[in-house]
């Protein structure tokens, strides 16, 4: 069993080490993917084609709530991994479910946000700005939704099998993914919302 | 949509293909059923996770796609063989040059290279398999499904017709309302998933699974080029993923990324496409360089000259390849300063490439060269590729490029880089590693026919295109008048393409002949080679190495032979862990193909419904805890005794 001093359980086998390294490289590819979407947004952010602009659309309060929910979920995910390393299955599941709820809260607000934009007259078809902005935001949102499904699948596996080298590795990987989405959101928050409201 | 819009109708050539495809498919199903081979196919091939079998499937698919892309090429050559030819109309010609480009780059070059990497790289570094065998199968099946989806376009719905680069606004739904360009956007997306997965898989394999003692700087050159190419894949393919997704959104969902109407920018597509597209050229050429390095070292009976310089140059080439994309559109409104920067970066690529050329030449110097077929391809590569390289430097000069841009000069240039650079390499690699894959050599005599017909045909086909290009003929022109004076040169070019095709036919005949008659008694090391893949049986045992080799230096297998270390002891043989076969990769990929097909026809609801299959496949995979099985030491020992003889 893993203790504080030895190698963490998720790194205990060669295959686990390779899976985790492979996922880091995948996150590298994801960085390229999001960078491309950001670059596209920066190219097209002023192309309104007569449609609404950033200052017509963004409501800082809602965005702050989303940010708060997602950042907190990253923290609770960290706590879940901490409990996993201490081999406390129940505490780990508690913090995972907390993460899940925060993630769902984020998605709820994001869907509301999309509704708000449609209401204000901004869709994918309105303007190049609309296309670029909604695609960037939507890609992040789809990632969060997939992450939620993934976490649910892993909760079932941990409940059934307990904390083993395999489930620990899977959980560690989903936590990397979750933190990554958080980092992407910080960039969206800064370079899309704050910059758009300046 | 009516049925007569669904199937392409009204062209006798395509009607012929439809009938031929239908008959071939029925024939295959009947044949497999008659031979009772379905179960065998499913268990041994469709669900396999063995890197060697996956590699062979890649190679078979690549050769088939080579045929298809080649037929496209021959049709273009027939159409331009004489002035005012009326073999193909403009629309059909547009479709043919588009599919020729896409098929040759993405469905011929890529799978042949990834196939050979799959077979050879794990053996070269002394590994049991790649890091993620099941993911490897998924890579193959997504590639295969993507390729098939792309290929059915010419009989169902119509092929893409905006060129392999598919520039906007032409490729947008306003100017290309048919489904053809949807096929482009979606089939390439599906295939791209697999390529990215391969890239990640190979990086982890090389970083984590090298045999003990094999430091990175002692790794065979082909594995080095695989590593660098894989890094390029991870860095470049997501850009294409996004570009294709944006294209799909523009075409199917009315977004405005590249359409001027909503404030979009067609130049954004060009930038994104070439940000991927230029590294892609090096993704295919670097492993080819690696193959030449292995072949030249083996048949010169010397170790590779300037190993460190070779490694530094491939890394430099990979780095520079990300910084040159604008040279594809010097003429499209950049400032002189921007063009100058990209001119310089482009010309800089000639430096590491030149270093490699000289290293190959120095490897041969004072070597005892054996003129096997594999070596002949490597020898032909050097001068032919250099012509491609030098004309590349001509094109790199932005001011001069205003003359060459979009002419046949450019087309000739990139065929002179990609055919000697990639196709010759694949041939060299196939002749070289064929015994490792199948347990017999390809015939050297028929191989000579293949070699001379192909090399002469290649030069006859593409050399005249430099001159008509300089004379002003733009690429993608489907017809020209007699007064241009291009007729004779293009006629020679068309004859050349027939010689080229005869060369390909000789390869196919060689494979058939050798399969029937070649000796099976060739041992593990028929070429007296240098690297670890030759320390295995031919064809390779399913578990690769009975005992993980201990590596001391470069060309370890050569040293093992010299020092008499190429034996194993019974007490060292242990049980070997193997991964189980899995049906998930093929099912998941077919599901992606179905969803993709519905998206092509813009049946969005159906696509959404069938996406459940993909999600289901992912969930099934997450809950799959199959841990594989072990081959007992006794069985391993028996297998080793059988091929090694006197143990």
Secondary structure topology:
The complex is a heterodimer of chains A (about 200) and B (about 650).
Chain A lengths: L13 H31 L9 H4 L2 H26 L3 H31 L8 H34 L3 H33 L1
Chain B lengths: L2 H4 L5 H23 L3 H9 L4 H29 L10 H35 L8 H19 L28 H29 L12 H33 L12 H34 L7 H15 L14 H13 L1 H15 L8 H24 L1 H7 L3 H31 L5 H27 L16 H31 L38 H7 L13 E3 L5 H17 L3 H19 L6 E3 L1 H12 L3
Helix pairs in contact in B: 4-5, 4-6, 4-17, 5-6, 5-7, 5-9, 5-15, 6-7, 6-19, 7-8, 7-19, 8-9, 8-10, 9-10, 9-12, 9-13, 9-15, 10-12, 13-15, 13-16, 15-16, 16-17, 19-20
Description:
The complex is a heterodimer of chains A (198) and B (647). Chain A is mainly α and 198 residues long. Chain A has one domain: Cytochrome c oxidase, subunit III, four-helix bundle (Four Helix Bundle (Hemerythrin (Met), subunit A), Up-down Bundle), CATH 1.20.120.80. Helices cover 80% and strands 0% of the residues of chain A. Chain A has 6 helices and no strands. In chain A, helix 3 packs antiparallel against helix 4 and helix 3 packs antiparallel against helix 6. With 647 residues, chain B is an all-alpha fold. Chain B contains 21 helices and 2 strands. Chain B has a two-stranded antiparallel ribbon with strand order 1-2. In chain B, helix 6 runs parallel beside helix 19. The longest helix of chain B has 35 residues. Chain B is globular and about 75 Å long. The model of chain B has no long low-confidence stretch (mean pLDDT 94). At the A-B interface, helix 1 and helix 5 of A face helix 7, helix 8, helix 9 and helix 20 of B.
